[in-house]
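hey so i finally got around to running the thing on that chain from the lab meeting. sorry it took forever, my laptop kept dying and i had to restart like 3 times. anyway pasting the input first so we r on the same page abt which one it is
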Amino acid sequence: MGSCPHRARQLGADRRSQVRQRLTEWGWQGERVDDLVLITSELVTNAVVHACQGAGEVRLYLQEFGGDCRLEVWDPRFDLPLRERRPRRFNEGGRGIELVRELAFDFGVVARRGAGKRVWVRVLLADAKPPPPPRN
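ok and heres what got predicted. didnt touch it at all, straight out
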């Protein structure tokens, strides 16, 4: 368990790099790509830190259709919902999910017993009329 923070930093850095590279390959760049890279870091770090006690596997999925980009981060812990935390003034943590909510067009969690949890976000990369959010 002591290696979780290091593992979270390393995996977060690897996934940020992969997301930026993939979006660049797809022809996207700019501030919204930066936002999605930051979101990637927050969600992967949360998954590693909180799933580390169990199997610890974290998966990342990325799709883009006409500038509407969906990122999903999966971890095996269906029982750990995302919670709003009120961080103390000098605490390092506790602000990530609020940051994700601010930067994403849409955001949610799907958790199933025996199937883990997927935290997903949508970021609109293009200056197009946003499509309607999915119905839950």
